[in-house]
């Protein structure tokens, strides 16, 4: 049977830096289009679980070994990625130490999630609003 | 840019029948391989959101108009589908009325989720264990 054509699948991790006061998060400045800052992540490989992809991409882009805490949601609006329909699974993760930009990241930044002053790529502004709500309430969105 | 090759994406809905005592759930008997009973669902179309796919597939297979309640989890073990690596987003849904088998469903059944006596396809036994835990606690799995 030929495999069906479905949206491209990505996995991202919102990384909380647990060694720093108030657990700020890591964002990367994208090296490739579309421009802007983004939650670290990338495409899932065939043969790799989605959580494994999120951990691998975080390591590749920020040099951090992250521990996934929970699934925040599945973001799948067909217009969310200008390159074509991409579905992203977003995890909340934690890490010790400090990030270093690598791979697709031109630079990394450390941010208070309630006060992000850089332009964000994709629908990551919406995702970080959902994350802030989760951080305040402990409840992940029912449906995204 | 050529699009990356990623796992195939599916969306399934565990349908709670709210008009019946103790809200039993709907499973379908598969018409196509692999054999067994399964949570209603199917592949996500390019250009369609994942929740929309879950609702569409539930309608196509069970003739029920479902309302999604929450995302139970993302199931992505590369070996979970013998046809090839398929990632399934599993939603909990509710519907009124009674299901009727259609499309890929050879038949439909109504089950107490704590007492399922039919053979299940894929990793749906694990998924229904996670669902039962959610049903008992109100908490979805952190990571699946």
Could you explain the architecture of this structure?
- 2 copies of one chain form a homodimer.
- Chain A has 144 residues and is of the alpha+beta class.
- Chain A has a single domain (8-137), classed as Nucleoside Triphosphate Pyrophosphohydrolase (Alpha-Beta Complex), CATH 3.90.79.
- Chain A is built from 2 helices and 7 strands.
- The first copy, chain A, has helices at residues 50-62, 124-137; strands at 8-17, 25-30, 37-38, 41-43, 67-75, 86-95, 105-111.
- In chain A, strands 1, 2, 3, 4, 5, 6 and 7 form a 7-stranded mixed sheet that branches.
- The mean pLDDT of chain A is 96.
- The interface between A and B is large, with 37 and 37 residues.
Query: Can you summarize the main beta sheet of chain A?
Result: 7 strands, mixed
Oligomer: homodimer
Q: What does the overall shape of chain A look like?
A: globular
> Averaging pLDDT over every residue of chain A, what do you get?
96
Strand content of chain A: 25-35%
The helix count of chain A comes to: 2
**Largest interface, with Cβ-Cβ < 8 Å?**
A-B, 37 and 37 residues
The H-level CATH homologous superfamily of chain A, spelled out, is Nucleoside Triphosphate Pyrophosphohydrolase
H/E element string of chain A?
Answer: EEEEHEEEH
CATH architecture of chain A: Alpha-Beta Complex
List the uncertain runs of chain A: none
Class per helix and strand makeup of chain A: alpha+beta
The helicity of chain A comes to 10-25%
Overall structural domain count of chain A? 1
Q: Write down the CATH topology of chain A.
A: Nucleoside Triphosphate Pyrophosphohydrolase
> Total strand count of chain A, please?
7
């Amino acid at each position: 049977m030929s495999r069906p054509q479905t949206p491209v699948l990505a996995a991202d991790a919102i990384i909380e830096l647990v060694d720093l006061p108030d657990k700020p998060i890591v964002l990367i400045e994208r090296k490739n289009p579309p421009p802007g800052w983004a939650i670290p992540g990338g495409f899932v490989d065939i043969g790799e679980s989605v959580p494994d992809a999120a951990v691998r991409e975080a390591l590749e882009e920020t040099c951090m070994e992250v521990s996934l805490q929970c699934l925040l949601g599945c973001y799948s609006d067909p217009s969310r990625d200008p390159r074509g329909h991409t579905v992203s699974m977003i995890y909340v993760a934690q890490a010790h130490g400090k990030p270093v930009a690598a791979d697709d990241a031109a630079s990394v930044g450390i941010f208070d999630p309630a006060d992000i002053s850089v332009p964000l790529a994709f629908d990551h502004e919406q995702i970080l609003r959902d994350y802030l709500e989760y951080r305040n309430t402990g409840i992940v969105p029912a449906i995204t």
